[in-house]
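Example (one chain per record):
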Amino acid sequence: METSFASKPAMNLVGVSARTTNQRETGPDGAIPRLWNDFFAANISGVSEPHFTYVLYTDYESDVNGAYTVLIGHAWAKEAAPEGLAVEAVPQARYVVFKSERGPVARVVTEAWQRIWAWFETSSYERAYTGDFEVYDARGFDPGDAEVEIYVAIREV
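Predicted structure:
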């Protein structure tokens, strides 16, 4: 898995959201698959870059074992969210950017997060838990042969 570093300015995202945990997501009651269905049904209008979809992990209770909010949506420049949707702020941060392997999207994202957790166990960096996100580019996106970039906010130890 390729890694690089990037600094990103603050941004807002609009979309559908839920509160969950990593443990919950490993079972049949995971919120994320339902959120994808809700996201596609919402057909969010008024976004400037509709081909980029973000999956944001934010409002962390603690660490990888605690609860967090997940939002699936688009970048948003307006103040208020359309009815039934949520807006979440992503603070300015420095990130480690992980590029997944190519393959079926559900598999490559799961494997990427497992590698990310292992990477941080031996890294000189710590996760900031301020807002991490996956980026999906709908232009030419093939769920059977996907490659995803995952931005994980860091602080140096």
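Caption: The chain has one domain: 2-156.
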